[in-house]
Amino acid sequence: MQLLGKRWTGLILFQLLSGPQRFSEIESALPVSGRLLTERLKELEKEGLVNRRIYAEVPVRVEYSLTDKGLALEPIFRDLQNWAEKWVEIQS
Amino acid sequence: MQLLGKRWTGLILFQLLSGPQRFSEIESALPVSGRLLTERLKELEKEGLVNRRIYAEVPVRVEYSLTDKGLALEPIFRDLQNWAEKWVEIQS
Q1: Cβ-defined contact of A79 to B75 (cutoff 8 Å)
Q2: Searching chain A, which residue's CA lies closest to the CA of residue B7?
Q3: Under an 8 A CB cutoff, do B5 and A10 touch?
Q4: Which class in CATH covers the domain with range B2-87?
Q5: Which of A33, A55, A74, A78 could form a disulfide with A61 if both were Cys (CB 3.0 to 4.6 A apart)?
């Protein structure tokens, strides 16, 4: 699972914790390039952390969501957040 | 804190959770090169996660240990371990 250490992977998973989202929603929430976001989402899908669901609508709708395996990461993100709030100084 | 995503950083911190250790002890516990271990320990010291203590003995003894900030990462490692045990298949 080297993937978890890759730049943006954590933030993408954290963003998806708030629920299923379209590509454009994730893209506008994070300061990450579309190309890199596509790449990371593909890797996360391959690792079984993210689901990609295509809705047969016009225009077609694609939504990304966390799998059970991805959702199970939630306590780790909560701990990381607590740790950062306590120990990491905000650089102003 | 990009440092936490770097290769070996997590394993070095995890190794130090078991208590203060000399460089050679950490080196023999992890399949990491001495050069990379030195580099990572310096970064971790700079970030305030690891203490480096020198004992004025002959020969000189140098021990590495977690700071309070480093020790506070323990719940994250515990959650990660639980997550991995449940969700990551061992590749044989």
Answers
A1: yes
A2: A5
A3: yes
A4: mainly alpha
A5: A55
